[in-house]
Amino acid sequence: MPAPRRGYDSLITVKPRRPAMKPVPEHRPSVRTFSFRDDGSIPNHHSLPVLLYPSAVSGPGRMEPLFASNGWGNTWTNGVFSYHHYHSNAHEALGVVRGSAKLQLGGEQGEIVEVQAGDVIVLPAGTGHKKLQASADFLVSGGYPGGMDYNIRTGKPGERPRVLEEIRLVPMPVSDPVFGREGPLLTLWDQTEGFK
Questions:
Q1: C-alpha–C-alpha distance, residues 70 and 83, integer Å
Q2: What is the pLDDT of residues 171-184, one digit of tens each?
Q3: Sequence-distant (≥ 6) Cβ neighbours of residue 104 within 8 angstroms
Q4: Distance of alpha carbon 167 from alpha carbon 145, whole angstroms
Q5: What confidence tens digit (pLDDT) does each residue in 75-116 have?
Q6: DSSP H/E element including 185
Q7: Residue 102 neighbours by CB distance under 10 Å
C-alpha cells in the first residue's frame, strides 16, 4: 500500500448565493479543505474533503440551532474523544461552542488542526478524528445531515470490509450545516470527482 499522503490544505472563499435559514452566520465563509487517504486503519473518505470554516459562528448557544435550521439534526453538545475514531454511516458537523483544542484529523498520519470557538468542521463519513489537547472549557456541538444516526468505529481489523461499503453508501447532504442550501459544502463536495 502506498504511504498515506498528508492532508492538503487550501483556502477558498465562497460567497453564498442567498442567505441561509435563521440563525444566520455573520459573514461569507473562508473554507479550508483537507483530504486524507485510507491508512489501513482509519479509512477516511475516498473522495470528499474535510471542510473547516474558521470563525463561522459567533455567540454561545448558536451551533445546535444553526445546524438544525439547516437540516443537520440528531445534535448533541459535549467533547471530542481522545482516541482515533470515525463514523462509517454518517457525515458529521462539529462546531466549537467554546474554548479551543488541537485535533488530529485523518488518523495517525493525518493533520493536526487548531480550532477555537466559532469554528466548524465538516467530516465526511469515514474521516478519523481525535482530540490531542484542549482548554478546560472546550465544548463542541455535533450534527448529522437529515438527523442521521451515527456509529462509532475505531479502526479495528474486524471492521473491514463492511465499513468501506457503508462509507460509500452515505448520501450527499442536501444542505451545508452552516450556510444552508447554497453553502460551500454543496459546491465543494459536488465538484469532487468520484462521488457516487
A1: 29
A2: 999 999 999 998 99
A3: 84, 110, 111, 112, 113, 128, 129, 130, 132
A4: 14
A5: 999 999 999 999 999 999 999 999 999 999 999 999 999 999
A6: helix 184-190
A7: 13
**Cα angle 195-159-106, degrees, rounded to a multiple of 5:** 55
Count the Cβ atoms, other than its own, within 10 Å of residue 124. Answer: 27
d(CA 128, CA 108): 9
Instruction: Say whether domain 10-187 belongs to CATH 2.60.120.10.
Output: yes
For 34, the grid coordinates are: 483537507
Radius of gyration of the chain (CA): 15
Looking at this protein, which amino acid is placed at residue 66?
A: L
Spatial separation of the C-alpha atoms in residues 39 and 51, rounded to whole Å: 20
Question: Cell 460551500 identifies what position?
Answer: 184
**Residue type present at position 146:** G
Query: In this structure, what C-alpha cell is assigned to residue 63?
Result: 451551533
Q: Which three cell numbers stand for residue 195?
A: 462521488
Cell numbers at residue 102, please? Answer: 488541537
